[in-house]
Amino acid sequence: MARAARKRNEALLAFIRECQWSYSACATAVRVVAQENGHALPSCDRSHVGHWVAGVKPGEKTCRYLAEAISRRVGRVVNPTDLGLAGGGSLETDLDGPDRCERDAATDLLTLGRADLERRAFGLSALYSLAALAVPLDSWQDIADRGRQARGGGAAVGRREIDTVRDMLTVFGTADEQFGGGHARLAVVQYLTSDVAAYLQGRFASDRDRRDMFSVAAELAYLAGWKAFDSSLHGLAQRYYLQSLRLANEADDRALAGFTLRAMAHQAVDLGHGQQALQLANSALEWSKGRATPAATALFTILAARGYAATGDTTRASTAIAAAEAHLASASPGDEPTWIRTSGFTETSLASQAGQALRDLGDLAAAETELRRSVATRNTESYRRIHTLTLANLADVQCARGRLRDASENWGQALDAMSGVQSGRATQAIRNMRTRLSSLGPRLPTFARQLDQRAASFLNSPSYGRFPR
Questions:
Q1: For residue range 376-431, what is the model confidence (pLDDT) as tens digits?
Q2: What's the whole-model pTM score?
Q3: Gap between the Cα atoms of 289 and 119, Å rounded
Q4: Disulfide check for 202: which of 157, 229, 351, 364 has CB 3.0–4.6 Å away?
Q5: Minimal CA–CA distance to 115: which of 103, 123, 107, 106?
Q6: How far apart (Å, rounded) are the C-alpha atoms in residues 344 and 417?
């Protein structure tokens, strides 16, 4: 029996034409999204796109990469079904629909956490989406009001439960800074989906208790997102950040919402989306205006500086760095919220972020000065992960300045500091080091070859082979 002829995918073809893409340009855009999500597609080329238009359906992941690439180009959300590529009813749609910000935040948190715990592939397949960064801040007050009116069932929840969650948050947060995002990540998620989700659906004696519980739950959801981000699970991290943002909104905690928007900006700039990072950092400043403490404002401002630097705006980046330093200088540590104290945002952290902004602007000498200051003043035992990353950033700058021996010494110290730290970002920093060394050709000095061999052994060890490549 003859095989039925395939029907040309007119919907996909129409979108490709709207994007004003050639088939080669479409394939390039798909490869960019795939690479960003830890899935290289080197063989994806114009012929693949031609087959898709002719009616061949790509794999599920590729369908979503294609939809995200087109969404970015046309400036609106496009789903695989819009492209004539019928979806399989996956959880992606349940969590990422256009009404996601209007649904019950506690229920969606539970759905996300269970998917993370019960579906091993979910974290690896969750897609980082620029469209999801469009947060409707202008309508969130109405959404929060509706959420408050809808509460009322479940068990009684009071100060004891709130204090318990905050104590657990402190334990998890301290361990995260010392041992990295891969350490106890699922334990945080398990706690969120069991105890905390039940508390959120409980009865509260006062609106203050309700707001405090939603606020601490938002901090814990943020931590789940930060740990996923540090584990290079970017799509998963983005989903936890969005849940954190929604919980903070229902708590009427705009400063905490700004803290999460800042984390989303951090993720965006690290992934190469400077304009989106700048928009998120500015949203954090605007949304928290009048409610954020000096240190929190400094943190949001330094991320704006990184956004300006990533978009090549030297003047505004420099102004933002100076403004962040002025805000932090007026801060009183005892008056700062717990999420500022736990994250360890101090002059040391600001110097690290300023150094990265200056590096992106091409001012390598100033970048090295700031990164050196950060390394010299860091509490290395309490903040081992960020110390590792700062050493690696310093070494990158020194290598770019032609000082290979200095760079190799700091890369070596970064390897020392990574012992026992489970961090996808730190692991990627070591991979980047190997790439830099290999680009220098076969005539590497002995000390650099030995460092490269040590890094290769490190990356091949069982503890680090499980992070996404």
A1: 999 888 899 999 999 999 999 999 999 999 999 999 999 999 888 999 999 999 99
A2: 0.83
A3: 39
A4: 157
A5: 123
A6: 18
